Amino acid sequence: MANLFIKHLLLGSAMCAGSALLLTSCIDDSYDVNKIDLTMKLGSEGLSAPLGNTEKIYLDDILSVDESVKLDANNLYYLVEDGTTHFSVKVDQVNTTFNDTHMSMNYEVVNYEKVREQLAAEGINVPAGTPLPIAANFVTEEAEAEGNQSIDFKIENINDVSFVESIAVTPTPITLKLYKENSSSNVALGIRTVKGLTIKIPKVLHVGGYDKTKWELTEATGNATHHVLKQKGTLTLNNVAEVDLCNLSLDRVDLNRSIRSKEIELSGNEANIALAGKVTFGNYSNRQFEMHEGDYASVRLDIKVGNNNRLTANTVTGKFCPSINPTVNDINIAESLPDFLKDDEVRIAASNPTLRFTSDMTNIPVGINLSGDLTSVYTNASDNKSVSLPATSMEAKQNNTVYYYQGAAPYDPEGERVATDQAKVTNLSSLIEKLPESIKVDLSNRKVNVQDKLYTIELGRNYEANAAYSVFVPFEFNGGLTIVYNDSTSSMHDDLKDLKSNGTLTVTANVLNTIPLGLVIGLEARDVNGDVIPGITFTKEATAEAGDGINEKASALTLTAKLTHEDDLSKIDRIHFKVRAESGSNANYNLVSTQYLKLNDIKVRVEGGVIADFN
What we know:
The protein is mainly β. Strands 4, 5, 26, 28, 31, 32 and 36 form a seven-stranded mixed sheet that branches. Strands 7, 12, 14, 18, 23, 25 and 35 form a seven-stranded antiparallel sheet that branches. It is rod-shaped and about 155 Å long.
């Protein structure tokens, strides 16, 4: 604005014309110029010169576009500051043990009395209490076998998990093994046949990998507490002491429970495993022996877990509460502000500041809740202001955009994106009404947390994502906007160094303004060192009324400077000016680069006379 405004007002003035007039005067070479008094008074009433009209001075000439102030596709000015952050999600490994289980039957499958009754039915009557003769080819009748036992299953070191639906484990072999369990070694009865076995397995254990030609599995659903494994056909053996009934593979633990401590231990009915079926025994000694009162033959079911009784947990499906504390760099405002926004008088009464968060979460398997506290930081800490951002959500396995905004809809100079979530914050503009040194972004203390939904994550894996955030402040305002623009003319010292005056310097013009800001212009005269010249005082500020953004508003402009000492005029190197621009009403206006200021009928006058001293 200086080069288009003040320079035109001063550098093209009649003062320069006066200098040119003297330089074209005739001088006789026979005279000693050192003895000639080269002092001349130019105009007893002072000098006055019309300078004509300026071209339109567009807002684009006043507000420079740089890394902080930009123009969008609609030529609307906006202030932008950016930052980045990083966050990670990790849930530690858990320790899971499943110890071998030994299940004895609830009662004796075959005992002295049952065998005595069987022998009697075959015509061999033996008095009670008398030893029973067991032939070499003896086979017992089918007898019911029933048993149940609690399994020893435990998960420890559960961290950052509030609810576990299931844990997927590396497939772990489980063998169901049946052993004979007799009263003494004298009872030479081994397992002959096994028929109609039903094994109830706790619902928490998801198994597979069994021989489907010999077994069928009915998985628990609804309120059922156990899977049911049923034997197909009859298993015929050779009076053995042990047999592998079934080989299974455990690949998942279904828990469906909240975590109130850091461990889970199964108990009660959910930990109970049961067996029921029919078994026969045969004499494995191939010779006759005697069975005495109190003798019996039974079976025991053993559950043997591979991998040294440890389950390797790979993923957990559940709800998670890991601590997520992103490190967030402050948004430096003052560092990159253009000059017209650095003055202490600047106020930004923005109607729709917008904060945009973006994050690529395509590799993150959990959704994130995002909230935070923003604090504008000033040199004087008592000026600091804070705004809390309400919770929004960023979804798993996708790119996310979240907006916080104050107006009717988010402002995004790059084009409003499809938002994952957004929230209106009515006091967001309070952070930048007076532009701060920086804005501190606080996302700590669980302001970033995993959504309360079921997700599946790998234990021990560190999931990482980068996030970017941008503060957009469109120059849309509802009154109260103040910006300050400072600049200087080009050097005028060579033109003014031989001139003196103790009068006044007056600049007048008619201003046509479409910019929706009232322009208040003040001037200072500065010397070659950049210091204000004490003897020159500008007694008035010039005011140009605000336009409406489209139509011109006419104002008369007058700038007056008092020249206290006659040689002050010769000291002037530059005219420094400050333009304070203020919105003049509460109407909603935008600043766009095509709005302009135009000056017509510009005149400069030095009243009180001008002395040109070329001695």
